[in-house]
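Lecture 7 notes: from sequence to structure.

We start with a single chain of 462 residues. Read the sequence below before looking at the structure.
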Amino acid sequence: MAENPAPEPPALTWRLAVSAVTTAEDAQVRSRLVTGAVIGFLLGYYAMHNQWLQAGWVLFCTAWLMLLTEGRRSLLEGWRRDPWMQGAATWLGLGLARSSVIESPGMTLESFTLGWAGMLLMMVMISLLWQAAKHPRAPSWMGLSVVLSAVLTASTSMIIFYGLKEDAHIGVPLKNWFIYGGWNTVCTGMTFGFAAVWAAWEWRESAKGSASWKKASWLIASVLLNIATLLTLSRGALLALTAAHLVWFLPQGWRAAWRPVILFAGCVAIFQLAAPVVSYLAAKEVAADLGVEAEVVHSRIQDFGVIPPNPALRLLERGDNGRFAIYAGALSSMTTWRDWLLGKGLWSANDAWSCGLWWNPEHLHSVYLDSLVRGGVLSLLGLLFLTGWGLVRAWRLAVEGEALWLVLAVFGLVGMVFDGDSLCTMLSVPRFEMLLFWTPLVIASARHGAAFANAPKALFGR
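Now the structure, written as C-alpha cells:
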C-alpha cells in the first residue's frame, strides 16, 4: 500500500497560496490595464486635444503593466506567437535599421529621436491591441468606445461650428473641435468615417435579436456619423466609405450587406438632396456678415468655403489640391539606385522632395508613396506583402461571419491612397495611420490566430 505523501510545511503552503492569489490578481490587473490602454488609444483619435495626451496615456498604462510579474512578458506575446506579427516586426525593424545606419538626407537629432520614440510607442500599442483583441467580446467594447466618442465629438462639433462660435456658419466643412480646436477636415472625415463603418456593423449585428432600444441607438449613431463624414467634404473619406461598403458584399453576399449598404446610400442621398437648402441658408448668413446681397454670395458659393448646392458635381470638379505636384516632386527626388532600392530613410527631411513646390505640405499624402520614398522599392514590396497577408486573415474571419476587420481594413487602405504619412510611427502629422492601418489588421491577426489555431498551416493561412 502506497504511503501518503508528507504534508507541505506550513510556511511553504502559505507561500504557495499567496503566490496563487498574487498571480490571479496580477492577471486581472494586467487585463484591465491592457483594456484601459486600448480604450484610451481609441478615444485619443476623437476626444484628446493632441497626440501627446494619447501617447502619455499609453505610456502610463504600459509603465504600470511592466511593474507586474508577467507584464513585460505579456508585451512580447504577440510578437512571439503570431507569424503575421513577426512579419510586421521584420518590416518595421528593417526600416529602423536602414534609417539608423545608412545616411538619410537632412536627418537631425530631433527627427532621429522622435522617429525612434514614435516607432517604439507604436510597437507597444500594436502589442496591446493584439492582446486585447483575443477577448471574445473585443469587437463590442472597442466598438462602443470608438462609436460613442465619435458620436459625442461629432455632435458637439456641429453645435460649435454651426451655432456657438463667433464666426459660426451653417454648411462650413465640419472639423473635430476636440482635436486642436478644429482638426483638419480630411483627418476628421477619415476618423468619423472609420467610426461610421463600425457603427453600421454594430447596427447590423443588433438586428439579429437585440433589444429595440439597442437597434435604434446603433442606427442613430450610424446615420449621424455618416452625415458627419459627408459634412467634412473629404473626398478621401467618401471614397473609403464607398469601398468599405462595396467589399461588404464579397464574403457572404447581399444578405449580409444590404442593411449597411442601403443605410449608407440613403445618407448620401439625403445629404445631396438637402445641400441646396443648406447652401442657400449658408449664403444668407455669409451675406449678412459681409453686408452684401445673398445672391452675390450664392453665385460664388465655392469661394466662401461652405457646402455647394450640388456636392456630387463639386467633388468631380475640384482639383487635386496639389497632390500630383507632391507625388511628382517625391518621385523626381529619387535620383540614385540607393534611393530606389533602400529609400531616403524614415526620418529624412522633407526638403529632399518638397523644395521645388510652392508650399510646404509637411508630408507625402499617401502612405504607399511614403513607404517608397522613405524605404525604397524593398519597403513598398514588404508593405504590400504584409497588407495582402493581413487581408487574407481578415477575409477568413469574414467568411466565418466576422467581416468587421476586413471592412475596416479596406476603409483605411483605400483612404490612405491619397492621404496619410508614415506607417512606422504613432507620432505622425496626420496621426490617423495607426488607427486606419494597424488597428484592423492587428486585431484581425489576433482573432484569426485564436479562431484557426488548429487549422492546417499554409503560407498566408498561418
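Residues 10-47 form the longest helix (38 residues). Keep this in mind for problem set 3.
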